[in-house]
Amino acid sequence: MEKTQNNRAWFLVLPVLVLVAFSAVIPLMTVVNYSVQDTFGNNQFFWAGLEWFEEMLSSDRMWNALGRQAIFSLVILAIEVPLGIYVALNMPKKGVWASVCLVLMALPLLIPFNVVGTIWQIFGRVDIGLLGRTVSALGLDYNYTSDPFAAWITVIVMDVWHWTSLVALLAYAGLQSIPEAYYQAARIDQASRWAVFRYIELPKMQGVLLIAVLLRFMDSFMIYTEPFVVTGGGPGNTTTFLSIDLVKMAIGQFDLGPAAAFSIMYFLVILLISWVFYTVMTNLDKRDGV
Amino acid sequence: MAWMAWTWPTAVFFGVIAALLITFTILAIRFPETPRTGVLGIETTRGDRLFITLLGAAFINLAWLGLTDAAQWWGLGLSLVYGAAVFRFV
């Protein structure tokens, strides 16, 4: 049968193009325009050239925020991915309990970011919060408002609580797609539990796990609301991640030029990492013949 | 458009990028190609190589700005050399 070619179908993409233009392309162009100018308000701009980029590239503040951000993203990936896989492996495969588990796992994902922040902000308080009071009663010195280590632990545990279920649900979907014949073959070969995981389950989950890593990396690298509500970036600047620092600079200090230069560099880093992930994923799909 | 705070250099910058995208789209329609595998070991089309060039050029220019005191034009020149290498070998 001859395939029909009709390029008019491209017009169906037009609404999306218009939407993307207004929600992403035009704002991005405006940010680029701001990054080479200075303003004192009143919509008056003065040419600054590459000055803001030079300032940002030599700014300890930006490099420190980037360092904190990278550590945060790596830590939560190192916890959430193995934990999500472990949870998925231990979830019931079918029956009523499978549905109950799926609903329970989906619950944290349905809570808005600012509500998650508020929950943990209260939960961790040493005067009225269940977590804060319990940890203090155990004799541990825990106060996320004054101790940087406690602040980091709180922000990381909060993120793990909020997002591990996403990894677990994706891994669970990957596990469910493995045909029973693979497990039967493994039983015939008397494969150990570890061998089943290493040579059957993990390779079959590879695609969904890469998506999980990409999603979690992107989200964690752009995290703003939850740490802002819980710690406000403190104590000091110890939990000031890139987005928090950017908002402080752009809105708090009204330094639009440096903030625009900062956000362009931030955008480029995210674009580079996303491209690497995307390339790896598409090449894996091609290799597996998907 | 005043709220977008346009300047001539940024308008030229986006104009060049838009012209490149249009050119490569026309090229892709008029002269369809088979993706090839280069030094990165990944399949790339002309469009992919343009993306790799533009992204790499952005980082080269930032690195040039942050690490040297020499004129930025040299950074741009280096980006063009990099772009030529990407189109030849990637």
TrEMBL record, chain A:
Membrane topology: Multi-pass membrane protein
Record flagged with keyword Hydrolase: no
Bilayer-spanning residue ranges: 12-36, 70-89, 96-123, 149-175, 196-218, 259-278
Record InterPro entries: MetI-like, MetI-like_sf, Sugar_ABC_transporter
Domain ABC transmembrane type-1: 66-277
Tree of life domain: Bacteria
GO annotation terms (biological process): transmembrane transport
Main location (coarse class): membrane
Keywords, sorted A to Z: Membrane, Transmembrane, Transmembrane helix, Transport
Annotated compartments: Cell membrane
Cellular component aspect of the GO annotation: plasma membrane
Family: Belongs to the binding-protein-dependent transport system permease family.
Protein name as annotated: ABC transporter permease
Automatic annotation (TrEMBL), chain B:
Sorted UniProt keywords: Membrane, Transmembrane, Transmembrane helix
Organism superkingdom: Bacteria
Spans traversing the lipid bilayer: 6-29, 50-67, 73-89
InterPro entries the record matches: DUF2160_TM
Protein name (record): Membrane protein
